[in-house]
Design brief:
flat; mainly alpha; single chain
């Protein structure tokens, strides 16, 4: 008889492997993201509440805005306060003047881009010293130069004129610095190839440099629009005629003349703030791209 072989048993030691640590890590990551999203949402709502209350109150009647208890949504929606701004008050004139300042500021933005391109891609004698001088003007507060600028414009006969309002702020040192820093990253070989093809410097600037500078144009365009739209102190100083006042000056006059009419003040403040938010929402994509490019540098 052939003896039966005993079965060989192999004791395999199982390692303790469990997907629980990975699951716990993912769960903690999701919880942390939800917590951060919750905190940001609460803070966002808290910051939006005054703006929401301003917009809603501009559509309430005078009696409802002072009534107790306070109502969140208007019971009777009215547009009479916006009508008063443009019919009984001079907000249409203020709007026209503000739009003129905005258009002039955008023309100044083009000049600022040209100056940044010149400093970035054209090395001439004394360019570095001149650029340092431009940067040095950023250290001087605007309040210091207001009186000398006013005296110069008075000698030129430009006080109480729209030209006197827009001319001092046409080009800014900070904008020249931003454009110069951005345009130094544009490849020199591309510009040289365009010159070899016979393109002029203006053609290179408008066809190559400006399209490549969309992110910084969007960022600087937003800053330019906000500065021009909210211009208050200099128009108030240089202009004596109410026909040259801007929306910010008109809003200050509204608060002084109609201090007890809160709904009318809310309508004026809403009309000042809403265009800035709309412009920001339109150019938000380009602004984020500009920040991403700046971070990659």
């Amino acid at each position: 008889m052939i003896p039966k072989e005993k079965p060989v048993t192999v004791n395999v030691k199982r390692e303790n492997f469990s997907p629980l640590p990975d699951l716990n890590h993912k769960r903690k990551a999701k919880l942390s993201q939800l917590f951060v999203a919750l905190i940001l949402s609460v803070l966002g709502i808290a910051f939006m509440l005054p703006f929401f209350w301003m917009v809603i109150s501009s559509f309430k009647t005078d009696a409802e805005i002072l009534s107790l208890p306070l109502t969140i949504l208007p019971e009777n929606v009215t547009f009479e306060h916006y009508i008063d701004l443009f019919v009984n008050l001079n907000f249409l004139t203020y709007l026209k003047n503000t739009l003129l300042i905005v258009l002039a500021s955008f023309f100044g933005l083009l000049l600022t881009a040209m100056a940044g391109y010149a400093f970035a891609k054209h090395k001439f004698k004394g360019s570095n010293i001149l650029f340092i001088g431009v940067l040095a003007t950023m250290m001087i507060p605007g309040q210091v130069t207001m009186i000398p600028v006013y005296l110069m414009l008075n000698q030129l006969g430009l006080t109480n004129t729209m030209m006197g309002i827009v001319l001092p702020g046409l080009v800014g040192a900070f904008g020249v610095f931003l454009f110069r820093q951005f345009m130094t990253t544009i490849p020199e070989e591309m510009l040289e190839a365009a010159r070899l093809d016979g393109a002029s410097e203006f053609r290179i600037f408008f066809s190559i440099v400006l399209p490549m500078s969309k992110p910084i144009l969007a960022v600087q365009g937003i800053l330019t629009f906000i500065g021009a739209w909210n211009s208050f102190l200099w128009p108030l100083i240089i202009a004596n005629d109410e026909a040259l006042y801007t929306l910010s000056v008109g809003l200050a006059l509204l608060q002084g003349q109609h201090g007890g009419n809160y709904a009318l003040q809310m309508a004026g403040a809403t009309f000042m703030v809403v265009p800035i938010i709309i412009i920001f929402m339109i150019f938000q994509k380009h602004i984020i791209e500009g920040y991403n490019i700046s971070g990659m540098k």
